[in-house]
Amino acid sequence: MSASRTFIALSLGGLVSTVAFATSVASSNKTDDPSSIDERLLETVAGTPTTDGLRAWHDLLGGEPHVAGSPGDAAVIAAIAGAFEGMGLETEIWRFEPLLSRPIAASLTFVEEASTAGSGDPEPATDQARSSNRRRRGVVSLPLRERELLADPATRHPELDWGWNAYSGSGLVEAGVVYANRGRPEDFARLRELGIDCAGRIVLVRYGGNYRGFKVRFAEAANAAGVVMFTDPADSGDDRGPTWPEGGWANETCIQRGSIVTLPYKGDPLTPFEPAIDGTERLPVGDVGLPTIPVQPIGYAAANRIMAAMKGPLVEDEDWKGGLDVPYRIDGGDLELRLEVRQERLLMETANVLGIIRGRETPEEVVIVGGHHDAWGFGAADPLAGTIVLMETARAFATALEAGIRPRRTVVFAAWGAEEFGIIGSTEWCEAHRDRLGAEGVAYVNLDMAAMGTDFRASASPSLHDAVIRAADRVEQPGGSGSSVTEIWRGDRPKPRPGSLGGGSDHVGFLCHLCIPSISLAARGAEGVVYHSNYDTLEWYRSNVGEDYAGALMLARICGRLVADLADAPVLPLRPTATIEDLAGRLDGIATAAAEAGLRLDLDAVRAEVADASVALVAAEAALDDIESAATRQRVNAGLRRLERVWSDGRGLPGRPWFQNLFATSNRDSGYGAVVLPLFQEAIVDRDQAALDLAVERYRTRIAALAGEARRLREEANGG
After folding, report:
1. Is 289 helix (H, G, I), strand (E, B) or coil?
2. How far apart are CA 675 and CA 668, in angstroms?
């Protein structure tokens, strides 16, 4: 806490000029117009963030490893809470106790015949001796930890772990090796076509193409005995450019850690749909479906040695080849590995930290801005490249608050815990506040590993596209071009188009479970990545992303303006027609995909409902201008939120009832990707005619409800 308090004192000292600026803005631009956003708020939240502030947050939060549930995690929680308190925000440490895991031991070695071990030992003198010494274990130990670097002293921190995958099964396996490319369903199908059996063997897979947990799940389905995952140099290593510390790319010992949970819900494995707090009944660990086989991540130096020792047939599929220095082989021949992984799974306390500004007019309406605080090591990039933007945006709003400028709606700044283990902290908070957020949640803005360059990117619910573009249009692109961020982002297109939101971060609970429209803000462009490794240090970040924090400063200004718009616009900046336009534009592609899959799909009834809803939504949108009555605005804003919740279905998606948004969700087979209109998309992938027929009816019903809500919204806007 002393480090936190010291920072707060320095930070508040630096705020004097900013507060004076805000006060002068307040006096010179004072407005009592209730029908517009307070320009004083916009100017303050855009003008407050500084490079020095962002760097100071980075120093405060990135000084030691802070895996969820560790002493370092507790220190970061205390520091963030102290900072929010020092800003004058209402502060809450929301503690929860999920099932986490911890590494105990791990090793990966070759198993060789004594006669071929190359040790020079004489042959055993007797058959009995020959039998007992038939195999030699530990002849070559493969590295499971990054090498320490003189150029980056942080890499010698004693609390850094070897590479590990959270929730791995524990056990000892001696088995042959099969290479399964990215570990996707199509990769295991290809192995079956080639007559390669994974049963009882260790599957070697490379990162990329899907969430690491699905690689394990599909390997388990193929009856594999264990999994070894490696970073391929063609993806993020020396094939891409100079490696750390000479450059930013992963060197040969860099190891990607990460969780491998693939349950049909997010959050704590033992408390689906309910928060992991005292009084909640928990599932037995053995009933949950966590991984059962040992899983170990390695760097590409270790993978190169394994592949070099494999003696089976060469890979023929070009997309199975990467950047290792040896030929890629599918089968190891008589090569065997000895893989041992020991982990413990236990309930561990961690926390979300919330800084809250209560709204002046409709405090029950809530805008949430979040990013996680836990990491696999120092986390300078992931998550802190987003967390520092969160903290600096919070400081900007605190500056406005100190100058007497309070937004209409409540804003919650949230630093989430245990995201890396399965998006746990934000999910538990969503589950604990389901009813309130379902009724009053306006929007969620996510900042995860956000500031990694100056190339702005955003993904968002369709109704929020215009709000993102508007915020970016009022911020100057770094580099001195004089162009706005929107102009550079747009390029040669008429208008920039944010991407679709799927899985992979803390927006999932808000978007996929509660149907709250969401946004993910990011800036890319850095040359290199050391994702989830011990090299994710402040030294790496400042050497490769930049000492100037230009991307982080740009994002803080965009985020401030965006949140001000969401929190202070008299009528919520949710464009009613956007979602139906997006849906209508996808129907032809869905029809084509169904035909290619050999399925029947009659969309006439859906298209008729789309046409009706479009007319109703256009009329409703037109009625939203010039609403002056506060009571009417409140009814209209409730109607705009109901339009978003139309896609919420308590039955959820087939096999995934926790995922209750029928419009957009995460890809069930990749984890990270976005799937829009998942009932259609998943039925087509499965070639399931019955599911596709049911999807038509479920979407027809939802679109009809959307039209009904649009008509109701128009009546309320017209004073009905």
Report:
1. coil
2. 9
CATH second-level architecture of 578-717? Up-down Bundle (1.20)
Q: Which residues pair with 458 in a beta bridge?
A: 521
For 247-297, what is each residue's pLDDT tens digit? 999 999 999 999 999 999 999 999 999 999 999 999 999 999 999 999 999
Q: What is the CA radius of gyration of the chain?
A: 27
Is the confidence at residue 3, as pLDDT, over 50? no
User: β-strand 295-298 against 226-230: which pairing, if any?
Assistant: parallel
Cβ count within 10 A of residue 596? 9
101-345 CATH: 3.50.30.30
**In sequence order, which ranges of 379-518 are alpha helices (DSSP H)?**
384-402, 424-432, 434-440, 465-473, 485-490, 507-508
List, for residues 453-503, the tens digit of each pLDDT value. Answer: 999 999 999 999 999 999 999 999 999 899 999 999 999 999 999 999 988
Query: Rounded to an integer, what distance in angstroms lies between the CA atom of residue 265 and that of residue 287?
Result: 14
The Cα 394–Cα 44 span in angstroms is: 12
Nearest to 296 by CA among 358, 368, 354, 219: 219
In one-letter notation, the amino acid at residue 577 is: T
* Calpha distance 718→712 (Å, rounded): 10
Going from the C-alpha of 303 to that of each of 10, 108, 266, 324, 383, the distances in angstroms are 47, 11, 31, 8, 27
| Consecutive H or E run containing 520 | strand 518-525
Note whether 176 and 336 are within 8 A (CB).
Answer: yes
Mapped onto helix, strand or coil, the DSSP state of residue 357 is strand
Least confident of 126-130, 380-384, 510-514, 618-622: 126-130
How far is Cα 166 from Cα 532, in angstroms, rounded to an integer? Answer: 12
List the structure tokens of 82. 């102290």
Looking at residue 291, the DSSP 8-state letter turns out to be -
CA 232 to chain centre: 22
* Omega before 153 within 30 of 0, i.e. cis: no
CA-based nearest residue to 610, from 590, 630, 593: 590
Residues forming beta bridges with residue 444, ordered by sequence position = 368, 518
Q: pLDDT tens-digit profile of 294-353?
A: 999 999 999 999 999 999 999 999 999 999 999 999 999 999 999 999 999 999 999 999
Average pLDDT, rounded, for the chain: 92
- Per the CB < 8 A criterion, the answer to whether 329 and 311 are in contact is yes
CA atoms within 13 A on the CB side of 680: 25
Residue type, 310: M
Share of the chain above pLDDT 70, in %: 91
Domain boundaries, the chain: 2-98+348-568, 101-345, 578-717
Return d(Cα 357, Cα 360) in angstroms, integer.
Answer: 9
Q: Is the pLDDT score of 634 beyond 60?
A: yes
pLDDT at 30 over 70: no
| DSSP strand pairing (362-372 vs 409-416) | parallel
pLDDT at 138: 55
Cα dihedral value 469, 560, 456, 80, nearest 10: -150
| DSSP assigned state of 509 | I
The CATH homologous superfamily of the domain defined by 2-98+348-568:
Zn peptidases (3.40.630.10)
